[in-house]
Specification:
By secondary structure, the protein is mainly α. Helix content is about 75%, strand content about 0%. It contains 5 helices and no strands. It has helices at about 1-30, 50-70, 80-105, 105-130, 135-160. Helix 3 (about 80-105) runs antiparallel to helix 4 and helix 4 packs antiparallel against helix 5 (about 135-160). The protein is elongated.
């Protein structure tokens, strides 16, 4: 029983980011065939099938990184407030992007949300670096993807902002 209890936080922290991803995927699946497919996208836009496995990998990495920080700092305490709050903030912003961009079709506000997510994720990574370098390194692919996603969101917004928005 103690072995299962020892693994429970690692599993919980690792799976937590997927909760918002799963909820967001319900919105995304509905909007891709109708709204998203109608948008002009740059030639370097990844194919739709790439997004689910990439996000699954990124959510797993950041979730496990948050566990490493939590464990290194001895759980939820005064020392973990800043690094885990930054993490929670960027995760909340991450989860908010899908309903804003796909659900509400607000591409500009989606970009703002994504830029805030990127900044908060960078601050999270910096705060983790002196606590647990592995945790910080686990955030690197996420930061790279957020950079690409920000550029993609900008291009989609810029190339489609004069189209009549659906209601």
């Amino acid at each position: 029983m103690e072995v299962a209890q020892a693994w429970a936080p690692a599993v919980g922290f690792t799976l937590l980011p997927h909760a918002g991803g799963l909820l967001g995927s319900r919105i995304t699946k509905k909007e891709i065939p109708v709204w998203y497919e109608s948008l002009q996208k740059p030639s370097w836009c990844p194919p739709n099938w790439v997004f689910a496995p990439v996000w699954g990998t990124l959510y797993t990495s950041m979730g496990y990184g948050s566990y490493l920080v939590w464990k290194e700092l001895g759980g939820f305490n005064e020392k973990s407030v800043v690094p885990l709050s930054l993490y929670a903030g960027q995760l909340a912003l991450n989860w908010a992007w899908t309903p804003i961009f796909f659900g509400a079709h607000k591409m500009g506000w989606g970009l703002v949300t994504l830029l805030l997510t990127t900044g908060t994720a960078a601050a999270t990574t910096a705060s983790w670096y002196n606590i647990n370098k592995t945790a910080a390194y686990l955030m690197a692919p996420y930061l790279a993807w957020l950079t690409m996603a920000s550029a993609l969101n900008y291009r989609i917004w810029n190339d489609n902002r004069n189209k009549k928005q659906s209601e």
